[in-house]
Amino acid sequence: MRIAVLDDDREESRKFISALQGWDPTRSAECFADGASLLAAAKVLPPFSVAFIDIYLPKESGVDVAKELIARSPETDIVFVTTSREHAVQAFEVGAVHYLVKPVTTEGIREAFSRIAAKWVQPRPILSVKVGKERRSEFLENIVGISSRDHAAEIELASGETFRVNCGIPDLLPRLDGRFLNVRRGYVVNMEYIKHMNAEGCTLRNGVEVLFSRKERVSIREAYNNWVFSRLAERK
What we know:
By secondary structure, the protein is α/β, with parallel strands linked by helices. Helices cover 32% and strands 30% of the residues. The chain folds into two domains: 3-121, Response regulator (Rossmann fold, 3-Layer(aba) Sandwich), CATH 3.40.50; 126-232, CATH 2.40.50.1020.
């Protein structure tokens, strides 16, 4: 397992290694002081299994480095390390597995690796629906959104495919899980696919822009933020 640590402060990197070996004395990590060095090392095989990236770097954004690393090495899991929760939502939108607040502890590292392991063994919920005379099943993780079309529901998949089911959104909502958010009448979004959120709406990873219900904008943003923090919480 290759582990990367990006932090411009050598003392912080040393403390990280100490905490890491408190979890597992056999583990080591490759430490980098800037994004360019990390990205260069990512070209060497095997890829990094996980990269612990400080968001606050002197001349660059750790979030931007993480985006570039994911583009080059999608197998690498990202864990952000910082002094504040200010960028937690942005970190989640990048696809971070976890979010550690300094000082990094052995318990925090243990939780990070626990989440990485759980990511690969967690159950994959399925939505089973009737399409015409046939029954179709899709993993919830593959559903980007659900919209109302002519008194029926239309499901959009990450692949770009859409299909219509023989029921409405109210019938589907109880069969979805907490990752789905009703952002306006007749439109439900999978929060996993929200790339960016502003005061009036959000942009999905497929480029679609969605406007929120005017009356519910504040509560929608609050629900999204709460969901993000629940996913990034340091405790189980």
